[in-house]
Amino acid sequence: MAKGEPGDVCARTACDRKPAVGFNRSTGDWYCLSCSRRLNEENKEEAQRLWDGDLVIVGIVPFTKEPAFLDENGKFHCPCGASHSRGPLDPLSKVYRCLHCGKAYRVEGVVELR
């Protein structure tokens, strides 16, 4: 694990606290609870305008590196075998949470099913 990864050291340069529990929608980095709150406060108006909510989402399940994918119809397919059509946690994040097992996955591309 590295700085700015879920559960590891906070992404803020001046911080070395663990665990990183807040996902920054803009950068994709992870921050400790204290820095997450600070970033949300400092960017409150812009985040409300851009995402209709906080910049840093605290409390989501960190995504795993296991293969999950979207099919050509936008349906999410989880390694646990479940699939659903609910969108990502945030349109810019590409992070989806499985409605069956609760794990979160970063999905980078679309797979054509045959």
| Percent of sequence in beta strands | 15-25%
Gross morphology is globular
Helix content: 10-25%
- Give unreliable regions as ranges: none
- Average pLDDT over all residues: 81
Largest sheet: 4 strands, mixed
Strands, total number: 10
The rounded Rg comes to 15 Å
Helix and strand succession? Answer: EEHHEEEEEEEE
| C-alpha end-to-end distance | 36 Å
Q: How many alpha or pi helices? A: 2
Number of domains: 2
Structural class: alpha+beta
Could you characterize the architecture of this molecule?
The chain is an alpha+beta fold and 114 residues long. The protein has two domains: 1-59, no CATH class; 60-114, no CATH class. It contains two helices and ten strands. It has helices spanning 33-42, 44-51, and strands at residues 22-24, 30-31, 56-58, 63-64, 69-71, 76-77, 83-84, 95-97, 104-106, 110-111. Strand 1 and strand 2 form a beta hairpin. The termini are far apart.
In short:
The protein has helices at residues 33-42, 44-51; strands at 22-24, 30-31, 56-58, 63-64, 69-71, 76-77, 83-84, 95-97, 104-106, 110-111.
How is the topology of this model organized?
Elements (H helix, E strand, L loop, with lengths): L21 E3 L5 E2 L1 H10 L1 H8 L4 E3 L4 E2 L4 E3 L4 E2 L5 E2 L10 E3 L6 E3 L3 E2 L3
Parallel strand pairs: 4-9, 5-10
Antiparallel strand pairs: 1-2, 1-3, 5-6, 6-7, 8-9
